[in-house]
Write a structure and sequence with these properties.
10 strands, alpha/beta, Rossmann fold, binds D-glutamic acid
């Protein structure tokens, strides 16, 4: 029997839309409810306990919408809060770190892999450990926090002189380390792909985990007999900030037009 409940997807803000669009492409008949916690973003500079608290509230809101799966479309929340969410949830929970790590491990030829992410993700060590676990023996992993990338992506400064200068500043150590694979370990970073590619050169494979995450979603739905029968799937958006603000910055991340009809959610009223 079909399960027509939607999939719940959340991020600290709009970065998770780069994952949502891959889910839409991979399983177009599935309904989705997206929550962006723009009112409390960024997560990447917060402590582990705050990120867990926020993520549990985000999940509570989505559970109230009767979702059949939770996708943590945020690397920082995945790195810090996945275990806490999995323990609490009654539905499957999908994180974004492991799929990205697997893609990087498959892509590298010289065993030198770079990871760029928020400070929170880098400091957690979770991404590095995940890549180390998947990568060929003897691989070397290099991490770099790129906190300004989130603001540049939100500002729409994806490929200009200022972005080029920031990219150079953050990525020079990785270039000098001779990496051949670079994990875009934050859901905001795919927007900066042109500037990152220009600096790193074509010899470096850039890993955007969105597609790999969408494949995990598809497989989990199939394995759990959770597929919908695709009749008018819902595509709803909620934000903890002003809906108009969300809509005005969201469409480039989504890449599929405006997320019209976004509603406000008072996330503070959800328990942890
Ligand atoms: N989307 C978040 C991530 O993937 C980054 C933005 C933030 O710091 O909240 O880590």
């Amino acid at each position: 029997m079909a399960d027509n409940r939607p999939i719940g997807v959340f991020d600290s803000g709009i970065g998770g839309l780069t994952v949502l669009r891959e889910i839409w492409d991979m399983v177009p008949s599935e309904g989705t409810i997206y929550f962006g916690d723009n009112g409390r973003a960024p997560y990447g500079t917060k402590s582990k306990s705050t990120i867990i608290k926020y993520s549990l509230q985000d999940m509570s809101f989505l559970e109230e919408q009767n979702v059949k799966m939770i996708v943590i479309a945020c690397n920082t929340a995945s790195a810090h809060a996945y275990e806490a969410l999995k323990e609490r949830a009654d539905v499957p929970v999908i994180e974004v770190v492991t799929p990205g790590a697997r893609c990087a491990a498959r892509a590298t030829k010289n065993g030198r892999i770079g990871i760029i992410a928020t400070k929170g993700s880098v400091n957690s060590g979770v991404y590095k450990a995940a890549v180390e676990k998947e990568a060929p023996e003897g691989s070397q992993i290099f991490q770099q926090a790129c906190p300004l990338f989130v603001s540049l992506a939100e500002e729409g400064w994806w490929d200009n002189e200022i972005t080029d200068a920031v990219v150079k500043e953050y990525l020079t150590p990785l270039k000098e380390a001779g990496i051949d694979t670079l994990v875009l370990g934050c859901t905001h970073y795919p927007l900066l792909t042109p500037a990152i590619r220009k600096f790193m050169g074509d010899g470096v494979t850039l890993i955007n985990a969105g597609k790999a995450v969408a494949e995990v979603v598809r497989k989990t739905l199939a394995d759990g007999s959770l597929m919908s029968d695709g009749v008018n799937p819902v595509r709803a958006f909620y934000t903890s900030d002003e809906p108009e603000l969300f809509e005005s910055v969201a469409s480039p991340f989504l890449g599929r037009g405006l997320p019209a009809g976004t509603k406000h959610c008072n996330i503070d009223r959800y328990s942890i």
